[in-house]
Every structure is written in C-alpha cells, then in structure tokens.
Amino acid sequence: MPSAEQKPRRPNELRPVRIRRRFTRAAAGSVLYQAGRTTVLCTASVSDQVPSWLAGQGRGWITAEYSMLPGSTAPRKSRERDGRLDGRTTEIQRLIGRSLRAVADLAALGERLITVDCDVLEADGGTRTASITGGFLALIDALHSIERALPDPGRFPLCDSVAAVSVGQVAGATVLDLDYQQDAAASVDMNVVMTGRGRFIEIQGTGEESTFADDDLERMLQLARQGIRRLTEIQRGALGRRWPFA
Amino acid sequence: MPSAEQKPRRPNELRPVRIRRRFTRAAAGSVLYQAGRTTVLCTASVSDQVPSWLAGQGRGWITAEYSMLPGSTAPRKSRERDGRLDGRTTEIQRLIGRSLRAVADLAALGERLITVDCDVLEADGGTRTASITGGFLALIDALHSIERALPDPGRFPLCDSVAAVSVGQVAGATVLDLDYQQDAAASVDMNVVMTGRGRFIEIQGTGEESTFADDDLERMLQLARQGIRRLTEIQRGALGRRWPFA
Amino acid sequence: MPSAEQKPRRPNELRPVRIRRRFTRAAAGSVLYQAGRTTVLCTASVSDQVPSWLAGQGRGWITAEYSMLPGSTAPRKSRERDGRLDGRTTEIQRLIGRSLRAVADLAALGERLITVDCDVLEADGGTRTASITGGFLALIDALHSIERALPDPGRFPLCDSVAAVSVGQVAGATVLDLDYQQDAAASVDMNVVMTGRGRFIEIQGTGEESTFADDDLERMLQLARQGIRRLTEIQRGALGRRWPFA
Amino acid sequence: MPSAEQKPRRPNELRPVRIRRRFTRAAAGSVLYQAGRTTVLCTASVSDQVPSWLAGQGRGWITAEYSMLPGSTAPRKSRERDGRLDGRTTEIQRLIGRSLRAVADLAALGERLITVDCDVLEADGGTRTASITGGFLALIDALHSIERALPDPGRFPLCDSVAAVSVGQVAGATVLDLDYQQDAAASVDMNVVMTGRGRFIEIQGTGEESTFADDDLERMLQLARQGIRRLTEIQRGALGRRWPFA
Amino acid sequence: MPSAEQKPRRPNELRPVRIRRRFTRAAAGSVLYQAGRTTVLCTASVSDQVPSWLAGQGRGWITAEYSMLPGSTAPRKSRERDGRLDGRTTEIQRLIGRSLRAVADLAALGERLITVDCDVLEADGGTRTASITGGFLALIDALHSIERALPDPGRFPLCDSVAAVSVGQVAGATVLDLDYQQDAAASVDMNVVMTGRGRFIEIQGTGEESTFADDDLERMLQLARQGIRRLTEIQRGALGRRWPFA
Amino acid sequence: MPSAEQKPRRPNELRPVRIRRRFTRAAAGSVLYQAGRTTVLCTASVSDQVPSWLAGQGRGWITAEYSMLPGSTAPRKSRERDGRLDGRTTEIQRLIGRSLRAVADLAALGERLITVDCDVLEADGGTRTASITGGFLALIDALHSIERALPDPGRFPLCDSVAAVSVGQVAGATVLDLDYQQDAAASVDMNVVMTGRGRFIEIQGTGEESTFADDDLERMLQLARQGIRRLTEIQRGALGRRWPFA
C-alpha cells in the first residue's frame, strides 16, 4: 500500500487523509482510514442482539471497540489477551462509542446493535481521532445497508456527522493533528470531537505533567474547529451521494 | 456520622464540604472527605518501591486507585474482583493520578512511590472530583510525614494545590457540583481540574447523547473557576499551617 | 475520627469497642464498628434477587463479603482485583456468612438476599471477629428496615444474636481479643463465634507451627465465653429498643 | 481396584482404611489412600526452589494442593480452571499445609520445597482428613528419599506424626468419620487434626445452619481422640520400619 | 500398584498394556489405563445437560477433558489453575473429543452429554494416545450403564471402536509407541487415531524442528496400523462380552 | 481494496493469490496476503528479548500469534479478550510457529526473537494456511532488514521456504484450497505444510465426525503437493531478488 506522503506541515494543517470504503466484505461497513501513516481499519457490524438492559424497548445501540495490532508499532505491542484491557484502550473505545451515539437517533435504528470495530494497523499518533472520523464512515455504510429494514425508512438514524481531531501545545506553539513525535513532545494534548454543524460532542484537554492557561485553551479550540471543518468536507467527499445530510 | 445537611442550593453553590484528617492511622495520610452525601476515604501510602520502569533514576512517582464500596450505592454495587476493572473505574483512577502529578516535583520526592487510594464509602455524584480534592489533602499529609527524609528537605515536592469540581447543563441551566440526581438529568457533564493559582490541569466535557455550543462551554468554565477558588480556600482552611504554598 | 484509646489491657479484657450505626445512608444497615484501632465498615444491602439455586422457594439468603482497604495496613495492601481472592479473604467471608445464617430463619426472610459487606478501614488484629460482631448489627438494622414487607411481620428472621472474639496463647498466657502484635506472637490462635444465649456456632483453633494440649483448649474456650457475653451486652446497648430478643 | 467393603458401622468406628505406597513412580512419595470409598492420591514432590520470601535463609517449606477430579463425584464436578479456586478448595489446601508444617522442623529440611498434592479420585466424605492422613505418609516417603542430602542426616525433619478425622452430630448421635450421606445430614461437623502424641494441631467445628452446646463439643472431641489414635496405628503399620518416631 | 514391567522393546512393539475397569464407582465408566509407566484414569460421566447450542434437538454430545496431575512428572508440573489452559492441553482434549465423536451416533445417544475425563496419574510419553484408547473403554462402560434409557435400546450409539498410537523417527529408525525418552529424541512425531475396522480418524505428523520425506511418512503409517490392530485386540479382551461390535 | 475475483474453480486449482509487501511500515516485515477473499495481514517484528528459557545461549527464536479481527466474519466474531484463547486460536498459532521454525537456523539468527503476527482481516476459509504462506514472506523481509547485524552475515537463517495449503473430501471429491463453504461441507479436512524442496513439515488430517481410508489419504496428499509447488512459485515471484534460496 503506497503510504500517503509525509510532507513538512504547517502547524494548522491536517495530515493527508486517505479513505478506502468497502476494504473488506464480511462487515456491513468497512473503511480503511489513513491520516499520514496512522492507518485504522474501521468495520461496522450489525446484529439483532441488543444488550440485555435494552431488550424489548424497540431501540437500538451503537458501541465501539478499539485495538492496536501488535505490528502497528515498533517496538511490537503485546496483545491485550490477559483479560485486562489497559486503561487507555478502555478510555478510547468508550470515547468512540459515546461520540457516535451523540448524533444517533437510537429509536430510528430499531432493536439493533451496531458494533464499530477500530483496529489500528499502523499507529503514528491520533489513532483515537482517526477511529472516530473513520468509524463514522463505516457506520454510515452499515446504516445504508439496512436502510430498508429500519422501522421508518424515511428517518435516517443519524442527525449530524461526527469528526475528531487532536490539538496540542508543542514547544510553545499550538499545533493541529499531532503525529507520534509531536504528541510525545506536547505539554498539553487535547482531543476534540465535533459535529459537522459545529457543535461540541467531547473536549478532553490534559496537561501532560503540566498545566495550561485560559488563552492556551482558546487557541487550541479555535484550531480544532478549523480542522473539524476540513475533515467534514473530506468525509462528505468520500461518501458522495451517500452523505445523508443537507 | 451525622451527615452534612442537604439544603436547597443555588446553581452556583457548592455542596457543604466536611474534611476529617487522620481518620485512620496506618496510612501516612488519611482524609475522610465529604461533599454533601458523597463520602470518600482518601489515604496516601508511601513506599520505597517505585515502578520498575522508574527504578534507579532517583525520581519518585505518584499513582492513584479508585474504588466504590459495595454498600456505597443502592442498589448495592458488585465488587470489581473478577480481574476486569470497568472502564469508568480505570478512567477515574488515571485522572486522579494525572491530576496530582501535574503539580508534583517528582525529582524532589526522591525514589519513592506514593499511592493515593480513594475509596468511596457513599456515592451521591461527584465522586471523582471529591477524590481529587480530598486525595490532594491526604497527599500533603503523607508528604509532611516524610519531609525530613526527602532529598532536599527545603524543596517541597508540590508546586501548587489541586482541586476539582463538576459543572453541567441541567434542564437548560448551568449548574455547579452536580449531585447524583442532577448528574443523571444533565445533558452535558464537565469535570474541571485546576490548580490553586488558576491554571487548568484537565478539562473533560461530554455531551450525554447530546451536543453543546461554544457559549455553553464558556458558561460552564466560568462556574468551574469559581467553584475551584472556593474549594481551594476550604482546603487551605483544613490544612492550616500545613498549607505549603504562599 | 478520634481513635478509641489504647490502654494497657489485662489478658481477659476486651479492647474498647465503639459503634456508630447509620454511618452511611445508601445501604439499609450501616455500622462503623471499632475494636481498639481495628475499624470495619459493615453495610447490609437488601435485594430481591436470591441466588439462582434458591429461586422460587420462597426462602431468603444471607451472604457476606470481606475486604481490606489498601490503606488499612502499613505497608499498603494491594487490592484483590486480579480475579483471584487470596485464601484468607475467602475463608473469612465464608465464616461471616455461615455465622450470620446460623441464627437466621431464612423462610421468615421471604425471597430476599441480604449481603453484609465488611470493609476494613483499619486493621489491627481481629478483623474477622469485628466483622461478625459489627455485621450482625448492620443486619439487624437492615431487617428492621424491611420489617413490614416480611412474609409474616410478627416473625423476626433471627432467633438469637451473634458475636465473635479471638483468644490465643501468647508467651505462655491465655489472652482475649488479640491485637495485631499479639496475634503475630501467638503460638495458638482461636476464633470463637457464639450466640447471645451461649451456644457455639463455630470454633476454629489453629496451632501456628505449633500444637496445643487439652487444658490449653479448655482455658481458651472459657475466656472466649466471657468475651462473647460482654460483646453481647455491648451489642444490646448499641441497638437499644431495636434489640429483637428477650 | 476392588473397593474396601462398606459394612454397617458403629458410630465410633472408622471406615476401613487401605494404603498403597509407591502407587506411582515420578514423585518422591506417592500414596493411594482409601477410607471407605473415599480415595485420594497423595504425592509429595521435592524441589530446590523455595518460595521467594524464604530464599537464602537455609530453611525449607512444605505446602499442599488439593483438588477433586471431575469423575470423583456424581454428578460430575467441573474442573477449577477458570482462575478462581472455590473457597472450599482454598480452605482445604491451606489446612493440609498448616497441619503438616505443625510437626515439621523446617530448618532440618534445608532450603527445599516439598509440595504435597492431594488429588481426590473418588469422594465419599472426609476427603480433607484423608488428604492429611495420607499426605503425611507421602511426605514421610519423600523425606526418606532425600535423607542423605539433608543438612544434618541424623535429624529427621518431622518431630511427630499427623492424622485427621471428622466427627459430627447426626440425628442426635455423635458419629466418627462421616461419609457423604452422614455429612449431608449432620447438624454439626467438626474436623480434628492431631499428632501421634495426642496434641491438637487444628480444631474446626461448625454448626451447619445450627448451633451446639458445651457437652456436644466435649463428646465430639473425645470420639476424635479415639479415631486419631487408631489412624496413627494404621499409619505406623503401613510405614513399618520407615516409621521415624519412637 | 505394581507397575507393568519395562523390558527392552523392539521398535515395532507396543509397551505392555494394563487395563482396570471400574477403578472408581462414582462415574458411569472408570478405567485405569496403563501403557508402560504411563497411567491415565479415564472416567466417563453422563449428564442430561447438553451444551446450549444443541438443546432441544434430541441429539447428544461427547466431549473430553485432559489434565496431568502435578505429581505425574518429575519435576512436578504446576496445576493449570490460572484460567489459561496451555496450548498443549487444549489441543489434546479437543483431539480426544473429536476422535470419540468420529465413531458416535449422536442421535442414538438421545439428548445427553457424556464427558470423558482423562487425568494422567503418571506420564511417560503417549498420554494423549493412552487417553483415547482408555477413554474409549470408559465410554463403552458408560454407554452400557444407560443402555435401557437410550431412545432406541437396540441401536448402540457407537458404530466402531477407536484406538490411538504414536509413531516416530528416532535416531533414523521408525519406532512405535514412544516413551518419554524416545519422544524427546524424535525428529518426527506422529499420532494416529484409527477405528477397529482400519479407517483413519486423525493423523497428526509433526517435524520437530525438522522435516520428513514421503517414504518416512509411509513407514510410520504402516507401523501405526499394526499397533492399532494390536490395541484393538487388547480393548476387545478387556471388554469381553461388553464388546458391542461384530 | 478491489478483492481478487472469485471465479468457478476446478477441484485442483488454488484460489487467486494477491500479495502486497510493505503494507505497513512499523514492523520489519509486513505482508498483506490474500487468497480469494481470505485476507491476512502478516507482520514480523524483531526484538532483542528472547524468551527467558533461551537467554544467554546465543540462539534466537521465532514465534507466531494468530487472531481474527471481529469484522472479519459475519456474524461478527467477539474479541478474545477475556484471558482465555479458544482452542482453535492456540492450535493455529502453535502450528504457524512450528512450521516457520522447521526451516530456521536459530543459531544463525543470533539472540533475537522474531514474532510473526497473523491478523485475519477477512476470513473465507484457509486462514491458517494463508497465515503460514504469508507469514513466511513477512519473515523473509524481516530477516533481510537485519541481515547485516546477524552473527554471520553470509549465513541466512532459513534453509528452505515454507508454504501451506488445505485439501479435503467434499461431496465425495478431493478438493484443493477449501473456501469457507467447502470447508463447512467437507467430511475430511487436511492441512499440509511443506518446504519448497518438497519435504513435509506437518500433516494434520481430521475426519469431521467421519473417517477416511488409505486411498483417500493418498489422493489428498498428492493434491496438496501440487498446491504447495504452485504456492512456492508465487512466493518466489513476490520476493523477486529477495528470494534467498537457489
């Protein structure tokens, strides 16, 4: 797979994005999402088995799982097979699920479970935001595949699009879409999830053994808004006439 | 234990706080922290065994663990004994640890591990912010107990205080320090960790199957800043002459 | 919490006992039980979900769980979160459950599960006997809270009270209610659980890499009987008019 | 294997005992111990790897593990393979280990670990007491096999023999050596471990949802002493000139 | 147990086999199977609880579990109690189950589960093939015990017998029925499972950090066929009039 | 990713193979291997940490792990995160590791661990043989990347190539390279691993609730040999001048 080229970037520039829908066939939605060298295979699988606490209510659920393949990093990352997910994995997959559900109309989905699996094939920073942005596309494709079976076929189960991006403070500068090296050097790291219409879904800003001031926060939020707008355009382009929003 | 009284509160008012230092004797720091009916026992234990990845570097580490006792809620909460921490527990204890380390001078601590255990005896909303605010006090007491054994006794291993509070959008209003019922009804929930000098350590804002706009964010941050200032005064009062900052 | 004073004790004297009922509010029964520095929070939670092997028989069940908080000892005790309870924890919680059930009328309880959680806040010897003696009080309070919902409100689901105490051989002497230092030095350690009417529920006597003779056994049993009588009076005093026995 | 015959027994009579030493060859000691239909394979394995907390002290350790084969009961018993030993298994193997160590001279053993495995091939009540009585014989054979390698070959690492038996109250009568049916019907169940010289190692008496009085206790202890004396004679006969005591 | 004698064997000679049916009584079938020093207790237990995926179809299931007792080897083998079966154990018990099911008429069994437990009391090579050959005998005895309760008593639920044997390349020679020392020295190791009528059920040939040629394969298969024929005669002799085949 | 076309195949024809080397960059070897719709990402990671039992011997080790992504099948396959690998996974990853080691010169590798991870992105039968055939290519690429650091750069650590293919009996016919539907319908399923020079590494033939005769075996082996020859040519083509054999 010819990797998307790595050029010197301006601090407010996204890494090049490459999207391949229907990368595999077994899952209803399957998107290979690449931002720079970060590569995530996002699949969305549909099941009639909703979680037991939701059964019989006529509503659906969307959940997500996240994992990094062992070969996605150097040195190799051990598999999480010992029955204990590390905290980072748990946090990320909860974030992905919450972000997708924030724009979902779970009643319009009917009694169905959609599981969005985000498996990182190569990790170079921003795997969680790539998972959200790419997972949203896989979700759209999965929803189209069951469109006729929905309770009300005219009512699409999503009300807005979702994209995510990271921003941070690196060596005193405010930087968009950090790669691994930038992330490792950042004093503040913030992940922002927003809708295509510009509303916040989630803000997570963390001082990495550091703290930050009001105006740092303001600059990072501004840059994140710009990045999300650009990602929304890219998503729209990738989906073409499958884009379900006005 | 006579519970701190539950009065009708204004949206910008904290719940009554009650602090009992040296609640138990075995741990170097032991604080029973109560905010309304939320009650957390925070202990700080000192050990010479730093994590293996830190050994031999002359630096210390501060970590945290969080747990809810089964009887802290009704209905009873099952113990997390099956080797799988739920995601919420993992997220919270990572947040507490990061927050305390953000103001720590780990070199000044020497090669030591301090573990801050936050065990929730009763849960009525805001247990993670109570754990941070109370855990900070237990940490201070533990640090004073080893003050003479520090590498440089004149250099206290913390550079600022830490407190945390929740804010949210409940029924259209912006509310400070949500109790369980308010939290369950909130459309947006935000936890803010700040230092006594007013810098951010962590912002985590989440739309609960909902989204929020720029001005919602601004109002919540303003209320959080006020709450943190008041909590910092309460912490200062509880520590008296043990307050290590100017 | 001002600790109950530690005075020099005679070998046949109990440590000072302090009991605070309704220490927390979420659980139906909640007792902070203190014997010397040993402090246990005992809560009793009521549920309609009996174990599956008991379902549909119209009878109830009483079970117990025991745990030591990490900060209850120095050095700090690791949490039992890896899915493997150590043998000591398992033995103790089985003993607490058996002891409480020995005086219970499980048919009079109706199809209900009562879980007595004994969480040790500070450990200075005798945590299992404190858990039984204090757990009995939490159980009583929980039963009173559901008294009107019982199958036959006039038939209280307990037929006798329960208390427990340790005795041992320390440096040749027979000693009552061993604290941690005495327990570590004992050649024989015996835990005795009895009813308020003076019948045995459980006797567990163990030579600690040692053996003991018939007359050692006799002296220890005699001392235990005295201790249990005194503890029963203390329990009765703490419950006042809630004491359900003649 | 022709089972030892099951005849009507008097309440103070042991079940027939059958002992086969060197039942297998891989382990240093290997005894097939049969009491009535209860059949336990006890092996004792010697290793130079003492537990880490004992390393470098020149002393040894004796530990025990207990397990029931799935086919040992009807209905079949599931294997304990899920990483969670049930409480009963844990209690029993701790009891076996403590009982054998009570007569051991661990310094005379040198820096060695002896593991006594008690695997129940068929279970008909009294498996823990059979494990102790048979495990003692396997331990003796293992010790003889390393006798020349001991720090002081003239100092045998055991100072007394160990045997165990159950007693109980069944339908108002005091009964020795309960089989499964008697055990299931007993209101009080007591396991007694004693040395060949008549000293107690362990007493565990439990009212099974029942209580017992002083004179019940006395009668049970008397019967247990008789049973232990008889078992000690049987052990002595099985070992012949290998019996290391006067 | 007097071990079957170990004589010098020819490469095409089986180790001496000793079979004791009804070794224990709790399980419906119980066979102590010995090949040289390798000793396996095979029990077959009958239950009405078929696996959930088979429920309600009127068909039965046969499954197997395999385990080595800790004392079966020197040095002692740790128990697999940590919730993770090693790969070898998993492979072996799946092989045993598949082999027995290959000759089973699961509809003729009715809605029943038969579990064949193969517990290795002593291991000297060939424990998996001994488990299959001995487990088949335990299965036969268990089936006879329920013969009258079968859906069609005239239709025995097995259509052929099963036996297994190992062959290998050791020091250039083709050898039958490898003991532990031969197995450790083999460059190729092959396990063959066949029916009494001479059809293959399973062939597993593995180069041990080595490879093998066509004619090696042919010689090994020929030797295996001879071994299986002899084992089938031994099985037939052990069962006598219980042999259900022509 | 445009899938390799699925045409009607003759029984002795392989599915179309597609190979993309350097699919990701973090791992030293990374091959996307596709046989029909079966797609496996094989990465080979190099580490200086050999398993502890091999440390200090100057020799290396090659191991493999196998996993199916949840979205690789419909319905979705749950992740094996509960600490218990299912037996199939364990068998497959042991087989892959053994197969690669059979042609390896572990001394020529130096004290290094190479881990070959085979993650199935889409599963349509034959995932284990695809993993071996593709994993071999990733291994070659990883070895070339460290060629200069080998103990003896002129001595390549592999002596032959490895490929694997399945054969089976489907509806009476002998078929090569079974896809999922054929595999589900097969009465006999055999996996054969061979070297490029035509020697066997592993043969695993299993009657699926069925048995097979000598001539069935012969026909399957013949078809497998042909398939392996063709796969070896394809491997050679994909590696070009990187093919290290004559």
Structure in words:
With 246 residues, the first copy, chain A, is α+β, with helices and mostly antiparallel strands. Chain A has a single domain, classed as Ribosomal Protein S5, domain 2, CATH 3.30.230.70. Chain A is built from four helices and nine strands, in the order ββββαβαββαββα. Chain A has a five-stranded mixed sheet. A four-stranded antiparallel sheet of chain A has the order 7-6-8-9, sandwiched between helices. In chain A, α1 crosses α2. The radius of gyration of chain A is 18 Å and the shape is globular. The mean pLDDT of chain A is 94. Chains D and E meet through β3 and β5 of D and β3 and β5 of E. β9 of chain E pairs antiparallel with β9 (200-207) of chain F.
List its traits.
alpha+beta; five-stranded mixed sheet; homohexamer; four-stranded antiparallel sheet; 246 residues; Ribosomal Protein S5, domain 2; globular; 4 helices
Summed up:
The structure is a homohexamer of 246-residue chains. The first copy, chain A, has four helices and nine strands.
Binned strand content of chain A: 25-35%
Rg estimate of chain A, integer Å: 18 Å
CATH superfamily of chain A: GHMP Kinase, N-terminal domain
Q: State the strand order across the main sheet of chain A.
A: 1-2-3-5-4
- State the order of secondary-structure elements of chain A, H for helix, E for strand: EEEEHEHEEHEEH
- According to CATH, the fold-level topology of chain A is Ribosomal Protein S5, domain 2
Q: What is the CATH class designation of chain A?
A: Alpha Beta
What is the 3D shape of chain A? globular
CATH architecture level-2 label of chain A:
2-Layer Sandwich
Output the number of helix runs of chain A: 4
Mean pLDDT of chain A: 94
Show unreliable segments of chain A.
none
> What is the helical fraction of chain A, as a range of percent?
25-40%
Structural class of chain A: alpha+beta
Largest interface: A-F, 42 and 42 residues
Distance from first to last alpha carbon of chain A = 34 Å
Largest sheet of chain A: 5 strands, mixed
